[in-house]
Task: inverse folding
């Protein structure tokens, strides 16, 4: 048995500590990840990841990339969650969808180096977002779909509100560059995917409405009780 064969996979293919990017980059990545994770929750064989080392060549010619956000289908999510990294030859399927969020440190690699890596890996769609609106590249939302051994641009254009929008065939969702964020919409239902901030706000609103209803019910009960007391006093 070779030395490589005896290595613990989590040692041979470790998770690499992330180098902090800007607050904007981290926030956009987190919100996109949260929206997609919530949307696909419960879908059998689906895994949504963020900033996780994806190894697509094993040792000794090890190659790795860490997508900002990615979605995989036909995999065992628990197996991926329990490992330090995503090893393509173990997982059995590449990410179907990859999103890179531009930052000063990463945008050149996103444009120049990662397209070839994602082609080799077997990614179906590769999307890029510049949350600054064009400081790093234009248009600020770009998508490519695999066409044989090359990338073909996905149509991205402005909607009636001036937002850049394109459709992900593999996700079945529309992507909208809205200010400094990326939003997802289900074209079949017309519903927008809630990101973690929106989900928390909705929960807070629901909780406030419930408390208000409870307060009104308690006030009504108190009023009824007071009326009963007055009726008893009059009889």
Result:
């Amino acid at each position: 048995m070779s030395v490589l064969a005896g290595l613990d996979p989590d040692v041979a293919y470790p998770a690499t500590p992330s180098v902090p990017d800007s607050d904007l980059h981290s926030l956009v990545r987190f919100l996109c990840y949260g929206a997609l994770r919530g949307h696909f929750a419960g879908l059998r064989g689906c895994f949504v990841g963020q900033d996780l080392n994806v190894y697509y060549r094993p040792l000794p010619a090890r190659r790795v990339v860490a997508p900002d956000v990615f979605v995989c289908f036909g995999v065992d999510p628990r197996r991926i969650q329990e490992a330090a990294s995503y090893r393509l030859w173990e997982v059995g399927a590449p990410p179907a969808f990859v999103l890179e969020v531009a930052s000063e440190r990463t945008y050149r690699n996103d444009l120049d180096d990662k397209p070839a890596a994602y082609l080799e890996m077997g990614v179906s769609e590769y999307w890029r977002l510049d949350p600054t609106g064009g400081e790093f590249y234009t248009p600020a939302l770009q998508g490519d779909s695999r066409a044989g051994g090359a990338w073909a641009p996905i149509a991205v254009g402005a909607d009636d509100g001036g937002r850049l929008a394109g459709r992900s065939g593999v996700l079945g969702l529309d992507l909208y560059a809205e200010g400094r964020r990326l939003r997802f919409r289900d074209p079949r239902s017309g519903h927008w995917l809630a990101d973690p901030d929106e989900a928390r706000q909705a929960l807070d609103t629901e909780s406030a409405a419930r408390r208000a209803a409870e307060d009104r019910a308690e006030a009504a009960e108190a009023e009824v009780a007071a009326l009963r007391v007055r009726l008893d006093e009059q009889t």
About this structure: The two ends are 98 Å apart (CA to CA). The chain is about 35% helix and 25% strand. Confidence is low (pLDDT under 50) at residues 204-209. The helical segments are 9-12, 23-40, 77-82, 88-91, 107-112, 114-121, 196-234.
